Amino acid sequence: MENLNQDIENHYLKEGLYEDIIKRLKEQGIDLNNVKRSDIAGVDEFHVRGAAVSRELARSIDLKGATVLDVGCGLGGPCRMLADEYNCQTTGIDLSKEYIRTANKLSQLVNLNRKTNFIQGDATSLPFDDNTFDVVWTQHVQMNISDKKKFYSEINRVLKVGGHFLFYDILKKGNEEVSYPMPWAGNTNLSFLFKAEEMDDFLRELGLTKEQATNQTQAGIQFFETLIAKLQEFGPPKIGLNVLMGETTKSKLINLMNHLKSGKLELKSGVYKK
User: How many CB atoms lie within 10 A of CB 129?
Assistant: First the structure.
């Protein structure tokens, strides 16, 4: 497991990530003493549809003033949004040390460090007490986690009774083989896709109750079609997912889009209550 975690961390690793973002902000003439969340929104939400789908997920329950854990938080964009717009006290955890370093610095940059906290750790062994959070939230993370039962058991453990689990995920549909590279994995060794029905089984066994589920596949396809058209016409943006994926950005996004179109993969979001 330790070797697998290291391989996953290496897949996402980009040295000097925060410094690169700062350089790109300077190149756009943005005053570093007055950086807004919108200035970094193109890079700090590493999932399909970015900030738009995070806001959509946030509207699915009453989040005002909640304590929230984002499992697999990446650069912390959703945590900052929830802290800023919903007055939540947010904690993010991610396997990537560089992502966590960058997340904490970005929160300082936009003056949200008092309401956000980011720590490096393993999603299958969360360093929190039982019944700690009002809400646990995860987006596009489980694809890298082999032990799904441990992953969802830990989410359930740290969630308060009466609290909510919110997810937005890429899931396998059918039994056809998936080809790589994808944004989350360069090959099959780092990818552990499963089906929505299997996730629901795990959560029901833990005693969680499904309150809503939304098929996000078509919205994701439309997002990709617009994004890829822009990439082809204008090239990579100053601040976008290209900062994280570099030269492989376009090929990975096109591959994911084609798998969504063919029905091999699907996008789903949902809400469960403990």
Answer: 9
* % of the chain at pLDDT higher than 90: 93
For residue 192, what pLDDT is reported? 97
- Asked if 170 and 143 touch (Cβ cutoff 8 Å), the reply is yes
The pTM of the full predicted model, rounded to 2 decimals, is 0.97
Q: Does 183 sit behind a cis peptide bond, omega within 30 degrees of 0 on the bond before it?
A: no
CA distance linking residue 51 with residue 57, whole number of Å: 10
Ramachandran category for residue 111: left, alpha or beta (phi over 0 → left; psi -120 to 50 → alpha) = left
Give the integer Cα–Cα distance in Å for 72 and 81.
16
Q: Predicted confidence band at 231 (pLDDT cuts at 50, 70, 90)?
A: confident
Q: How far apart are CA 38 and CA 60, in angstroms?
A: 22
Report the amino acid identity of residue 194.
F
Residues 6+ apart with CB under 8 A from 16: none
Report the C-alpha gap between 214 and 268 in whole angstroms. Answer: 6
The per-residue pLDDT for 34 is 96
Nearest-angstrom CA–CA distance, 8 and 189: 9
Q: Is the pLDDT of residue 137 over 80?
A: yes
